[in-house]
Specification:
InterPro entries: Fe_traffick_prot_YggX, Fe_traffick_prot_YggX_sf. This protein is mainly alpha-helical and about 90 residues long. About 50% of the residues lie in helices and about 10% in strands. The radius of gyration is 13 Å and the shape is globular.
Length: about 90
């Protein structure tokens, strides 16, 4: 059975994630407050960021940067800055 969460990104009730994809307290916060739809949007941005900034997930600093961007995007309503990429109007 799918669960519903009040998605802090979409500002509405929406289907929640099936699993906690991210570890720790932040992972729990994402699981409890972010919908599948918003998580999918973040994952697209995350791939762009990793590619553009040539991030290495084995590098702690790179993971920290990505986590900060994730929090800003999902919980603070900030658009991810990706050079050369303009969201469609």
């Amino acid at each position: 059975m799918s669960r519903t969460v009040y998605c802090q990104y979409l500002k509405k009730e929406a289907p929640g994630l099936d699993f906690q994809f991210y570890p720790g307290e932040l992972g729990k916060k994402v699981f409890d407050n972010i919908s599948k739809e918003a998580w999918a949007l973040w994952q697209t941005k995350q791939v762009m960021l990793i590619n553009e900034k040539k991030l290495n997930m084995m590098n702690l600093e790179h993971r920290k940067l990505l986590e900060e961007q994730m929090v800003a995007f999902l919980f603070e309503g900030q658009e991810v800055e990706i050079e050369g990429y303009k969201p469609q109007a």
